[in-house]
Structure formats: C-alpha cells, structure tokens
C-alpha cells in the first residue's frame, strides 16, 4: 500500500507535497502512525478471531457464557423455534419460505 494513499482522501498531491516541505517531521510521523495502525488493526482482528474460535469450541467457555446469559441451552433454542411455529420442518423448507 502506498504511504500517501490514506491521506489522498483529504488532500491532493500538491497539498501533500507542500505539507511535506513545510512540516516534514509531522508528515513523516503521521505516515508512520498510519502504518502502525494498519498493522495493529490486522493483529487485533486475527487475535479476536482466534479467541472467538476457542470460545465456540471450549466446554468451559461455553458453560460460562450460558451462566452469564450470553448463550442459551440448546434445548431452549429448539423450544423457541417450535413456539414460533417452526416445528420440525426440514431446513430446505425454511430456506424456501
């Protein structure tokens, strides 16, 4: 990714060149901070996905989520479907309606 690409949304090329001449340190720091933010965003996303994957497969985590009310027991989930009139229809029938 081009260093200047992120700033083109608010400045044209001539303004970018002018700012770099007048304030080279500030512009350099801004580019560096943007690069770091971009890298950190990717790292945060990947770590969050790893944690979510663990929480969906770990028995302890699932039990804690149920106790905290973040998840409901599977039996209650199916009871809600039946209460809404879904009954025991095949999945294809749901998708067609």
Question: Which features characterize this protein?
Answer:
elongated, mainly alpha
Provide a compact summary of the structure.
The chain has 97 residues and is mostly helical. The protein has helices spanning 13-22, 24-57, 59-67, 74-83, 91-96.
Account of the protein in words:
With 97 residues, the protein is mainly α. The protein has a domain at 1-57. 71% of the residues lie in helices and 0% in strands. It has 5 helices and no strands. It has helices at 13-22, 24-57, 59-67, 74-83, 91-96. Helix 1 crosses helix 2. The protein is elongated and about 70 Å long.
Annotate the secondary structure layout.
Blueprint: H1 13-22, H2 24-57, H3 59-67, H4 74-83, H5 91-96
Global morphology: elongated
What is the typical, i.e. mean, pLDDT? 81
Structural class: mainly alpha
Helix content: over 70%
What is the string of helix and strand elements? HHHHH
Distance between the termini: 45 Å
Radius of gyration: 25 Å
Oligomeric state, counting identical vs distinct chains: single chain
- Number of helical segments with 4 or more residues: 5
Count the beta strands: 0
Low-confidence stretches: none
């Amino acid at each position: 990714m081009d260093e200047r690409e992120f700033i083109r949304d608010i400045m044209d090329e001539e303004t970018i060149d002018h700012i770099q001449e007048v304030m080279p340190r500030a512009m350099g720091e801004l580019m560096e901070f943007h690069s770091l933010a971009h890298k950190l965003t990717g790292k945060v996303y990947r770590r969050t996905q790893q944690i979510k994957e663990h929480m969906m497969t770990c028995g302890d985590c699932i039990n804690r989520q149920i106790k905290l009310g973040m998840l409901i027991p599977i039996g209650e989930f199916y009871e809600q479907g039946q209460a809404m009139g879904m009954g025991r229809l095949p999945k294809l029938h749901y998708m067609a309606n």
